[in-house]
C-alpha cells in the first residue's frame, strides 16, 4: 500500500495584504508542529515571497502555460518558483468560469507547472445543474481525461475534487457521498494514468472546523482545499489539526 501525502491546503483567492502575514505566520507555526501533514497556503502572488521563511509550503493560484513572453498580467511557473512557491493550483472552477479556461488549457498549465518544478493541484468538480442531473461522475471523468496530463505522479500532481455548488456556499455533499465520489475519482485516475490511483485527492468546498474531522476520516480523502476558512489562523488551525488527527 502506498502512503498518500496528506495536505491541508488553503486557497486565499483574491484576499490578503501585508497585514495578513501575521495569519500566515500563525498558521505556519501549527503546520510546523504537525509533520505528518503538509500545510500549504496558496496565496495571492504579491504575498508569496513575503511569506517565505515562515516554514509553510507556498503555492500560486494559477499560471500561464507559456514559459515567458507577451502575456500582460499573467504569471509563469518560473516566477512562482522564484517567489518561493512549490505548488500551484490549476483549473479552479473560478478560473474555469471567470476566465473560460478549458480542460485543454488546464492540461497545458499542469504541464507548465511540472516544467517549472511545481506540483500541480488540479481542480475538478461538477456544477449544481450537473449534480442535480446526476451527471457528476461523467463530468469528473471527462475533466480527468481532459485536464490531467499523462505523466502525473504523486510527486508532481495533487487532485482537488470541489463540487462547484459547495464552494463558498456552506453546503457540502453528504459525507458518504463524498467518499463514494472520491473512490470513483481515484478509480478514474487509475484508468487514465498508470499509478493514478496513488495520487492524493483533496476535498474542497465549504470545509471548516465543524466538518473537517468527518470528511478527513474518509478512506479516499487525503486532505482539503479550503477557501474562506483558510484566511484566519483561528479557523484554519483546527482544520490542520483535524487532518493530523485523522
Ligand atoms: P471554500 O472554497 O472553502 O470557501 O468553499 C474552496 C475553494 O474554492 O477552494
Distinct compounds present? 2-phosphoglycolic acid
The low-confidence parts are: none
Helix content: 40-55%
Strand order of the largest sheet: 1-2-3-4-5-6-7-8
Characterize the biggest β-sheet. Answer: 8 strands, parallel, barrel
Terminal Cα separation, in Å? 18 Å
Number of helices, counting only DSSP H or I runs of 4 residues or more: 10
What is the helix/strand order?
A: EHEHEHEHHEHHEHEHEH
**Oligomeric state of this protein:** single chain
Estimated structural class: alpha/beta
- The general outline is globular
- Beta fraction: 15-25%
Mean pLDDT: 97
- Rg (C-alpha, Å): 16 Å
Please give the number of β-strands: 8
Describe this structure in words.
With 246 residues, the protein is an alpha/beta fold. 41% of the residues lie in helices and 15% in strands. Strands 1-2-3-4-5-6-7-8 form an eight-stranded parallel barrel, surrounded by six helices. Strand 1 (7-11), helix 1 (21-33) and strand 2 form a beta-alpha-beta unit. The longest helix has 18 residues, at 175-192. The protein is globular, with a radius of gyration of 16 Å. The mean pLDDT is 97. The chain binds 2-phosphoglycolic acid (PGA).
